[in-house]
Each structure stands twice: as structure tokens, then as C-alpha cells.
Specification:
Two copies of one chain form a homodimer.
Chain A: H1 11-21, H2 28-38, E1 44-46, H3 47-56, H4 63-75, E2 79-85, E3 88-93, E4 99-103, E5 108-112, E6 129-142
Parallel strand pairs in A: 4-6
Antiparallel strand pairs in A: 1-3, 2-3, 4-5
Chain A binds a DNA duplex (25 and 25 nucleotides) through residues 25-30, 46-48, 61-65, 67-68, 71, 86-89.
DNA sequence: TTACGTGCAAATAATTTGCAGTCCC
DNA sequence: GGGACTGCAAATTATTTGCACGTAA
């Protein structure tokens, strides 16, 4: 287990691997965006937010490519679409099993660690359907607000 | 219980009352739309869906008014906005405490009777915030689909 | 009467798409 | 080299808004 030659620590390398594994060609833009999204733990981003972050990081990428990339990553299972409020789409780095606080009016999303919420019983799906995923959104408001 | 003089049964009358109670003038359009929305049990509609239904029912109303009315009803607490998929807004007749099945790809929403799902523990909100509402979305996919 | 509502069309916002040029394998 | 990818701008889709006219209190 020790001294193995794998270089897990290199985020760029990891991202390339990850992209290849899901069948996406690791291009400059995808690798850079993947690095922004995956190298810093869980993220919740909208296209606009990711675009601004990319600008700040001097990553040369167009807004259209941001949209396309977010969709491709989502289709590939690297991201999950978060339905927070209609009108704007958010994406969540797709770790298994956690839910979200959403702050009303502000557009902030905060992870709820998986264990802090628990469903006792899952409902029976209608005939011919199976459960793909369960989303729990806990909407918050400012006290006194 | 029997032969009481209240006329609970008259949907139009009920809707007028209801609108007045939340401070909305019971105009022709609002009463008609309220009737469509509230007289038939729980509903999940998008603006487009409500508009088409109104057309079928020969209710003279413009799409802009549908949007305005849905927003006004929501602000007044008669409806609740449902975050299903970004891109399109759905509204839910705001009964207390139930959750939703959402069928992937199709845009269908089905109520989960309140009792069929149960949260054991609610997570602790961050300092200064309180829980306004909990939404549970159970996403379904066709078996074998 | 008079402020509030409604309809229409134009405006805005978010996202997608077509196509010419660029880059990875 | 050749097909996959990107950027730009134009197109599409969902929703909101401004303003003249209609209508409930």
C-alpha cells in the first residue's frame, strides 16, 4: 500500500483520468473546469458562478462552453443538477448521499452531512417505476427576517 | 351537522372568500383560475399547463395574467412554488405536508401522501436561521427504461 | 369614481444551437 | 488528418414589464 507509484495527489492528473473514464476528451477547458469543480471538495455552482470563477482564475473559456461542459459533466454522472429555484440551474458535485439547506432569497446552498437527516420509510413507487434518487431540500429563513 | 345553512359546496363562492381573505380582489380571471386550481383537489401546474387548461375551459385569460396570477397566489400563500427542474416553474396547491414523486424526463409530478415518508431527525440549521419548509423529491425512473 | 387588474407586445434572463475555426488522439 | 471541441453570435424558451384600457368596490 505504501510507496505505490500512483500520483493521486495531482489534481490535474486525476481530472484527466476521470474525464477519460467517462468518455470525455480531456481538453484544456474541461480539465481546468474539472479542476475548479472537483479539487476543492463539494461545490454548488450555477453556470454564471462558474463562469465568473473561471474568469478570476484566468481560465480562457466562453459562457457557451461553460453551459455545454456542465451538461456533459452532468450526463456523464460527474455532476448532479440541483433544483433549487426555477429560473436558474445549479449543479452539485455528485457525492453519494447528502442533502441541502437552501437559504430563501439569497441563492446560497449548504450541504447537510449525510447522517444529519434520515428517512425512515421510503414510499412505494407507482407500478413500473423505481426510485432513482431522493432529494431533500431544507429551506431556511433568517430568524426575525 | 346536517342541513346547516353554510354553502361550503359552492366552489365559486369559496374561491371569492379565499381571495378576499388574502387581500386579492376577486376578479373574473382570478376566480376562474382559482376554481380550476382549488376545486379539484391537489394540483401541480406550470404556467403553460394552466393556460392550456384555461383555454379548454373557455376561460378568457392571457398568458401574462396567468403568470401574474400564479405569482400573486404564491405570494399570498395559496400556492407553493415547486422546484422540479430548473427551466420551468411548477406550482403546487399548498396543502400542509406532503411530498412529491417526480418522473424523470416526463414532467409529471405525483403526490406522496404525507404519511408515506417520514424524517426521523431534522438537521440543525446554521446560527441565525430557522427551517421554513422541507421538500422531499423522490425521483423515479421507468424500470428497464 | 378611482385604484387595481388585465391584455398585448416588447423587454429580459437563462440556456441552447449552428457553424467556422481549433485541438486532441 | 479527422472527428471531437470551442467560441461567437443568433435563436429559443420561460418569464416579466410598460402602458392603455377595463372593471370591482
Amino acid at each position: 500500500m505504501e510507496g505505490a507509484p500512483t500520483r493521486q495527489g495531482c489534481p490535474f492528473h486525476d481530472v484527466r483520468q476521470r474525464l477519460r473514464r467517462v468518455g470525455l476528451r480531456p481538453t484544456r477547458q474541461r480539465v481546468s473546469l474539472g479542476w475548479v469543480l472537483f479539487a476543492k471538495g463539494d461545490r454548488h455552482v450555477s453556470a454564471e458562478m462558474l463562469f465568473e470563477e473561471a474568469m478570476r482564475e484566468r481560465i480562457p473559456v466562453s459562457l457557451a462552453t461553460i453551459y455545454n461542459t456542465l451538461r456533459q459533466f452532468t450526463d456523464a454522472g460527474l455532476l448532479r443538477e440541483l433544483a433549487i429555484d426555477a429560473g436558474k440551474t445549479y449543479f452539485d458535485t455528485a457525492s453519494d448521499d447528502h442533502h441541502h439547506f437552501v437559504i430563501e432569497d439569497e441563492n446560497r446552498v449548504i450541504d447537510i452531512p449525510g447522517r444529519e437527516i434520515e428517512l425512515t420509510t421510503l414510499p412505494t413507487p407507482p407500478e413500473g417505476y423505481e426510485i432513482a434518487h431522493v432529494d431533500v431540500l431544507v429551506r431556511l429563513r433568517k430568524i426575525g427576517g
